[in-house]
Amino acid sequence: MTRSLTILGATGSIGRSTSDVVLSHRDEFRIEAVVGGRDAQALAEVARRLGARFAALADERGGAELREALAGSGIASGAGDAAVIEAAERDADVVLAAISGAAGLRPTHAAMKSGRRLALANKESLVCAGAAFMADAKRLGVEIMPVDSEHNALDQALAAGRNVDVEKAIITATGGPFRTWPRERIAKASAKEASAHPVWSMGSKINIDSATLMNKGLELIEAHHLFGLEAERLDVLVHPEAIVHGLVQWSDGALTAGLALPDMKVPIANALRHRERLRMDLPRLDLAAIGGLSFERPDETRFPCLSLAKAALQAGGAMPVVLNAANEIAVEAFMAGRIGFYAISEYVESVCSIFSRRNIAAPSTVSEALAIDEEARVTARQAIPAVDEQTLPQGARKGR
Ligand code: NAD
Ligand code: MG
Q1: Tally of domains within the chain
Q2: Which residues line ligand 1 (CB under 6 A)?
Q3: Is 362 found in the same domain as 307?
Q4: What angle do CA 335, 170, 234 make, to 5 degrees?
Q5: Residue 270: CA atoms inside 13 Å, Cβ hemisphere, count?
Q6: Closest ligand 1 atom, CA of 10?
Q7: What pTM, to 2 d.p., does this model score?
Q8: 322 and 309 in one domain?
Q9: pLDDT in tens, 73-127
């Protein structure tokens, strides 16, 4: 049966993998709409390739360029926030939500409110507004299928039993490019070194989050909302081969694990079709060829972002929103070469501690979440110079 699909973030890393899945199953999907951030040419190209009906660019200034690039194709287009929301709300069986960062909240929520089944890659939707998303999904009877590989594996493993019998749900991390580096060396790492992910090929921001392990921390918060598991029943295991993505430990001592080769097309295909499963023409996992799988505990001394995220999950309220916003600003500054690697965690910690005194309740709507997000960003931007001075590696200090 042909399903109609809308892709939010179609020009990104997840968007491109989704296009690959769709193009290898031409008869099974019809593309309703595609959404991109700023690159009009790239969006026009993917819209044409997939034969979308509508293309929306978030950046209003690129509207004319998009229209020109789509001339003669019969594909309608729009630019700006309203066009993005229009794309998200259009009639489709599934919306794959893969905009990066908190910018994904409104369009993703708009798709869900219109009753679209979500294949959710934008973890920030759950980190920042998890309570609102899960409550609305329940009320509207909308299914949220996780695309994030760990959560997709957990979703499959959890199908083997009852939620009350889950002792622990464990997500794995590759450990990132600095897994074996001593702290002194990590402290001097450049953005380029932090972006060199050993296994996955991803967007730039999530690459840095994988190097700091903040990505895993955000994923714990994501898992908490998706599966209704409290912090005590969630855990992280470092697994450099990235073959086992998630494990469920049951009350009888048995474990059910989700395994796959590290290729996002596998969880994307699963999220798009769920239990019906697409036939994917990808290499099969050959465990004998791999020979061994290794696991270790994460080192929260060298990777303090993981403990900051755990603390935000424990604290609850608005802390996950604050954590995520401060992290987005700090990662931006790190990628621009303005701050050192450990300044990321120091900023996040200082912004979190400012907000923790205020005991702000968990946002019950997306608008509330975005208001807290904005406030935390302002605080993070103000805090940056102060932390900057103390933590920048000598050679990386600006103007001295
Ligand atoms: P990316 O940076 O490669 O792509 C982001 C996409 O969002 C692009 O299409 C970009 O144009 C679009 N975009 C950016 N700002 C926008 C805005 N304001 N409005 C509309 N569109 C906008 O990112 P990615 O790596 O593909 O990740 C996307 C999401 O999926 C993130 O939330 C990430 O955490 C999650 N995720 C990614 C991976 C991965 O392997 N890349 C794995 C799991 C989860
Ligand atoms: Mg992941």
Answers
A1: 3
A2: 9-15, 35-37, 58, 84, 98-100, 103-104, 121-124, 148, 200, 202-203, 206, 264
A3: no
A4: 90
A5: 21
A6: 9
A7: 0.95
A8: no
A9: 999 999 999 999 999 999 999 999 999 999 999 999 999 999 999 999 999 999 9
